Amino acid sequence: MKDYTAKPDAEGRLPLRGDALAARYRVRHRADGVIELQPESDPPISDRTLQTLGRSVGALGRGGASAPVDLDETFPDFDADEGLGPNARAAAVAELAAEIERLRIEAGYTTDELLESLRGERERATRERYGDAFVDGLAAPRSEA
After folding, report:
1. How many whole angstroms separate alpha carbon 113 and alpha carbon 86?
2. Which residues contact 2 (CB under 8 A, 6 or more apart)?
3. pLDDT by residue (tens digit) across 33-60?
4. What is the Cα–Cα distance from 133 to 122, expressed in whole angstroms?
5. In angstroms, rounded to a whole number, what is the distance separating the alpha carbons of residues 32 and 37?
6. What share of the chain has pLDDT > 70, as a percent?
7. CB-CB contact of 142 with 51 (8 Å)
8. For residues 92 and 75, what is the distance between their CA atoms, to the nearest angstrom?
9. Where are the domains of the chain?
10. SS3 56
11. Which regions in the chain score pLDDT beneath 50?
């Protein structure tokens, strides 16, 4: 146990010396002047995050999950032991971007037209899978938490 005197600085901060054993602490200032520190393990999960997780689990339960992706086909350079290295990942992204650009030019679309079409298609597919209420809920303005 360490015993020392600490004096608040001009900003009212009280310096604490020693190695912190936790990343976060709950601080309580008692009426009698005692300050208590309690280590916290994980930050609490927000209500908004819990609601999103609930919707996701519900969609999964209704069979609303997407089809599995075959990484061997999508990323031929992927090695399960080594992972997809930065150079291989950059090369794969560049290759996919070039293919998308080639197809866009071939189809005669501008980038703005392609993006607007993508937004519309994504909304249509989401409405088809999850229903209007879910999509309208996603489009609603979010309140500050």
Report:
1. 31
2. 17, 18
3. 898 988 887 767 888 888 888 888 887 7
4. 15
5. 15
6. 75
7. no
8. 7
9. 74-106, 109-139
10. helix
11. 145
